[in-house]
Specification:
Two copies of one chain form a homodimer. The termini of chain A are far apart. In chain A, helix 3 runs parallel beside helix 4, helix 6 packs across helix 7 and helix 7 packs across helix 8. In chain A, strands 2-1-3-4-5-6 form a six-stranded parallel beta sheet, sandwiched between helices. In chain A, helix 3 links the parallel strand 3 and strand 4. Chain A folds into two domains: 132 residues, Rossmann fold; 51 residues. By secondary structure, the first copy, chain A, is an alpha/beta fold. Chain A is built from eight helices and seven strands, in the order βαβαβαβαβαββααα. Chains A and B meet through helix 1, strand 2 and strand 7 of A and helix 1, strand 2 and strand 7 of B. Chain A binds a DNA duplex (30 and 30 nucleotides) through helix 8. Chains A, B: It comes from Neoaquamicrobium microcysteis. Chains A, B: This is Response regulator transcription factor. Chains A, B: One of its GO terms (biological process) is phosphorelay signal transduction system.
DNA sequence: CGCAATGGGGATGGCATCATCCCCTTTTGT
DNA sequence: ACAAAAGGGGATGATGCCATCCCCATTGCG
C-alpha cells in the first residue's frame, strides 16, 4: 500500500497531480494539502512513501529562493523516510541542485510535465536516479478537446493531430495500440468513430 | 456551439481547465495553446467565444507586470469579440484592475479556483459582471483520494469529510442529492459503498 | 492491374458506473 | 422508551465505454 501526499496550493493542479498518482500507482491512497501547516499536520499524523511538493505555497514569497527552499526543507524533514518530488512552476537548474542536496529525489517543472509522465519519473527514482525535468517547449503542441468524444477517441485524435508530417495513419494506430496495450484495429475504430462524431458536428479540424 | 481556448503553459493545468470547460459548457469545443505564438495562430485561424489566459507564459518574465499585461493585451487584441478570463497563479488586485481595463471579463486566482467553480464564473460574466476571485485559504481543506472509489463515491466522501462539525450526515446526503440532481437515498448508498471499500482496505479516515 | 492505405460503417460481449429499489440491525438523542 | 439517525448490505435495469470482429467502397501508387 503506497501512501502519497501532494502539497500544492492550486486546487486544480493538486487534483490533477493526485489523479496522476492514482492512475500511476496501484493500491495507494493519495492525500492533498493546500498549505504548509496542513502538510505538516498530515505528515505528523501518518506515514507517507511519496510526497510531491510545490515550493510556492501561500504565506511564502514564491520568488524568494530562501522561502522556497525553506518549504522543501521543512517538508523533507517532516517525512525523512519518504521519496520527495519537487514540482514547480518556475524553471531553475540551481534550485534543482539545491533540492537534491536537501534530499529530494526529483525536480520537475510543471511546464514540462504532461499527462501520464509521472509514472516515468517514479520509475526513474525507483532506480535510484535523480529525476530532473525542466521546461520543454520543443514538443509544444496544440490541444483540442471535444466534449462528445470518449477518452479513447480523444486520445487517438490527439495522437493523430500531433503526428509528424509524413507519418501514415496506420503507424499512429500501431503506436497507440502498443502504448495502450490494445489492438491496432481497435485504435483505428476509435479514430473512425471520433471522425464521424466531428463530421456530424461540422467541426472536423484540418488534416482530419 | 461555444468555442473556447485555454492559453496556459502548464500541461496539467491546461488540461484541467479544458476539462472544466468541457464539463461546464454544452456543445462546445475547447482548444489549448501552450505559448503566445500558438495562441495567436489559433485565434487568427478561428473565432472563439471564450478565452482563458494565464499571463505567465514561457518567454516572458512572470514577475514583470509589463510582460504579464502585454500577454493579456496581445490575446485580447487578437480576439476582441471573445469573453476573456485571466487565470493566474499570483494574487494581485491591481493587476486584476489593469486586466479589467484591458477588456478582460474575469480575473481568477488559481489558488482560489476549485473544481466545478468555473461555471459560476461564467454565469457571472454572462450577467455582465466583472468576476474577480482572489486566493481564498479560509476554506482550505484536506483532500483525500482513494483509487478504488468511483467518482460518485469519492464525491460524497469528500463532502462528508469537509462538512462543518455538527452537520448531520443526512443533511450532506440531501446536499449532494440536490447538487447532483439525484436521490438523497442514492447519495447515502454511495457513501455506504465508499465506507465499505475503505473499511476493507483498513484505511478508514477519522470521522468516518 | 494489384495492393496498401484510407474512409465509413454495423454488431458483439464484457464490464463498470449510475441511480434506484429493497431489506435489516445498531446507535443515539430526548 | 420511542423516534431519528446511522451502519451494512443485496439486487436491479439502464447506460456508456472498451475492445474486438466483421463488412464495404474509394483512393493512390508502382
Amino acid at each position: 500500500m503506497h501512501r502519497a501526499l501532494v502539497v500544492e496550493d492550486q486546487n486544480l493542479m493538486r487534483l490533477a497531480l493526485m489523479a496522476e498518482l492514482r492512475a500511476g500507482l496501484r493500491d495507494c491512497y493519495v492525500a492533498g494539502a493546500q498549505t504548509l501547516p496542513m502538510a505538516k499536520q498530515l505528515l505528523d499524523q501518518d506515514q507517507f512513501d511519496l510526497v510531491i511538493t510545490d515550493p510556492g505555497l501561500p504565506g511564502f514569497d514564491p520568488t524568494s529562493r530562501h522561502d522556497r527552499l525553506h518549504v522543501v526543507e521543512t517538508i523533507i524533514e517532516a517525512a525523512p523516510g519518504a521519496a520527495h518530488l519537487v514540482v514547480t512552476g518556475s524553471d531553475d537548474e540551481d534550485e534543482a541542485l539545491a533540492c537534491r542536496l536537501l534530499g529530494a529525489r526529483a525536480y520537475i517543472c510543471k511546464t514540462g510535465l504532461s499527462q501520464g509522465e509521472l509514472p516515468l519519473v517514479l520509475k526513474q527514482i525507483d532506480r535510484g536516479e535523480f529525476s530532473i525535468q525542466l521546461s520543454d517547449l520543443d514538443t509544444a503542441k496544440l490541444d483540442l478537446r471535444f466534449p462528445t468524444l470518449t477518452p479513447r477517441e480523444d486520445e487517438i485524435l490527439a495522437m493523430m493531430m500531433h503526428r509528424n508530417t509524413g507519418t501514415k495513419r496506420r503507424a499512429v494506430f500501431q503506436e497507440m495500440a502498443t502504448k495502450a496495450g490494445i489492438n491496432a484495429a481497435s485504435a483505428e475504430r476509435y479514430y473512425k468513430q471520433a471522425r464521424a462524431k466531428l463530421l456530424k458536428l461540422g467541426r472536423l479540424p484540418e488534416g482530419l
